Amino acid sequence: MDSIRLKKKKKYLIINVLLFAFLYFSVSFNKEYIRPIYADKAFWGILTGSYSNFMAAYVISFFVIPAIFARHLNKKQSRMVFYAFSVLVFLLLMYEEISPFTGASKVYDSYDILASALGSLFAIFTYEIIFKKKKV
Known about the structure:
By secondary structure, this protein is an all-alpha fold. It has one domain. The chain has helices at 2-38, 42-61, 65-71, 75-98, 110-131. Helix 2 crosses helix 5 (110-131). The chain is elongated, with a radius of gyration of 17 Å. It starts with a helix and ends in a 5-residue tail after the last helix.
C-alpha cells in the first residue's frame, strides 16, 4: 500500500516539475529570442512582453491538479479548488506587478495584469474542457 502511495506522489511531483520546466523554458525562450525581435513593434512588443505573466498564471494554475487527484475530490469540489487556486495565482501576480515583492517585476505594466487575468481565465477554460466528461 505504501509503495502505491509513494509511486503516486512521485507521479504528481514529476507532473509539477514538468509544468515548472515548461514554464521556465518557454518564458526564457521568449525573453532571450522572441521578445528582442519584436520589442520595437507596438502590438507584438506588448504581447511578447506580457507573455511571461500569461504563462505564469496559466501554468501555475495547473500545479493544483495533482493535489485534486490525490485527494479524490468530486467534480464540484475539484472545480472550486481549481477556480480558487487560479484566482489566488492571479491575485499574487497582480500584487507582484503593483507592489513587487519577489523581484520578478521591476516596472508597473497594466498589460501584465491583463495578461495574468487572461492566463488564469484560459486555465479555467482549459480545466473545463479537459475535465468536462472526466470524473475527477
